[in-house]
Amino acid sequence: MRLIKLKEVIQKTSLGRSTIYEFITKGSFPKQVSLGAKSVAWLESEVDDWIMERIGEREV
Predict the structure, then answer these.
(1) Which residue has the higher pLDDT, 23 or 57?
(2) Which neighbouring-strand residues pair with 42?
(3) What percent of the chain has pLDDT over 90?
(4) CATH of the domain at 7
(5) CA gap 43, 5 in Å, rounded
(6) Among candidate residues 52, 36, 27, the one with its CA nearest the CA of residue 3
(7) Chain centre distance of CA 16
(8) How many structural domains compose the chain?
(9) What pLDDT, on the 0 to 100 scale, is given for residue 58?
């Protein structure tokens, strides 16, 4: 299990920061994990699963 910071989430998804947070608000992107007062990260496996779901939607 690996945690990744926002910069890597942006690189993996090609989404912008505001879009990621908008998707989180809508419930369509994995929620971040709080690491402290001002630090968050995402489970890499959840982000990877989200990407695979997008790929799967393309194939339908």
Answers:
(1) 23
(2) 4
(3) 93
(4) 1.10.238
(5) 9
(6) 36
(7) 11
(8) 1
(9) 84
